[in-house]
Write a structure and sequence with these properties.
The protein is α/β, with parallel strands linked by helices. It is about 30% helix and about 25% strand. Strands 2-1-3-10-4 form a five-stranded mixed beta sheet, with helices on both faces. The chain has a five-stranded mixed beta sheet with strand order 7-6-8-5-9, sandwiched between helices.
Length: about 300
């Protein structure tokens, strides 16, 4: 029986159960193992001050390497672009809507003007780029906790991922889709991670993959990886596929949102190359992406 590792949050458990059902549909039995992550324990510090994104994945990486679990299920946007030695991204199933959305308080008549809540430096920068007169306040916790805070403190609204709200049956709380805000690379996608030498299970997990979505998220993650090699600025990226063509939109901003560099490109499916994401990032670097750090 396969052992699925997951964080304990309601959303993480939904994702683990989703993958468990995919495995069941393919004839494979599994059980879910809940594991505490460092990022879930420390809720009073902004995410970007906790270190790299491994704060949500490290404990599961250790469990994989110790062979306590056979696969770990993650929100792929939380997974570092470089893996621990002997671990690999085995599979990326079908992707949910990748965009961010705005959740306004239930009692809008009491809402405070021009205050947006988010714990993401990317969302903050994109919002301030479009609405520079707003104040941004910190927002941490699981999805339900963050929604409660939006209602309690009467902010203008809080920014959430559509995918998380959809998976938890909370789309009724969506006030507006922020399709002008480029999502985090791989947002809306799930990532199945396993040991790179586990050939038998690798073959099983790869049958769950959407090959076009995999190419999309691989491009976004390599774009991010190339920029982060010398840059910690907010980065947004989205690759879509339709009718034989991949379309890429990417951006990097200064932390205060005052400056933004964008890049757009299309690629025929038969011309796809994993290095595409790296080439796109290098073009932004040539245009002065690292200069944004000076702000």
């Amino acid at each position: 029986m396969l052992k699925i590792g997951t964080r304990r949050s309601v959303l993480a458990l939904w994702q683990a159960n989703y993958v468990q059902q995919l495995l069941k549909n393919s004839g494979y039995a599994s059980e879910i193992i809940e594991i505490d992550s460092f990022g879930d324990k420390i809720l009073d510090i902004p995410i970007h001050k906790l270190g790299d994104k491994g704060v949500f994945t490290k404990a599961l990486d250790i469990a994989l390497l110790n062979e306590d679990i056979d696969l770990a299920v993650h929100s792929l946007k939380d997974v570092p672009t470089e893996f621990e030695e002997n671990l690999t991204l085995a599979s990326v199933p079908t992707r949910e809507n990748p965009f961010d959305v705005l959740v306004r308080p239930l009692k809008r008549q009491n809402s405070k003007k021009n205050i947006i809540a988010t714990g993401s430096v990317r969302r903050k920068a994109f919002w301030l780029n479009k609405y520079p007169n707003y104040k941004i306040t910190e927002l941490r916790g699981n999805v339900q906790t963050r929604i409660v805070k939006v209602d309690k403190y009467y902010w203008t609204g809080g920014i959430f991922a559509f995918a998380g709200l959809k998976r938890l049956g909370l789309t009724n709380r969506i006030s507006e889709t922020l399709d002008w805000m480029l999502p985090a690379p791989a947002q809306g996608a799930l990532g199945i991670v396993c040991r790179s030498n586990d050939e038998k299970n690798l073959a099983i997990f790869r049958t769950l993959e959407d090959k076009f979505i995999r190419k999309c998220v691989d491009t976004e993650r390599l774009f991010l990886n190339t920029l982060e090699s010398g840059c910690s600025c907010p980065v947004g990226a989205l690759t879509t596929y339709k009718d034989g063509v991949f379309t890429f939109n990417g951006a990097i901003l200064s932390n205060d949102g005052a400056e933004k560099l964008e890049i757009h490109d299309n690629l025929l499916v038969d011309k796809y190359d994993l290095e595409w994401g790296k080439h796109l990032a290098k073009k932004l670097i040539e245009d002065g992406a690292f200069r944004l750090l000076e702000r």
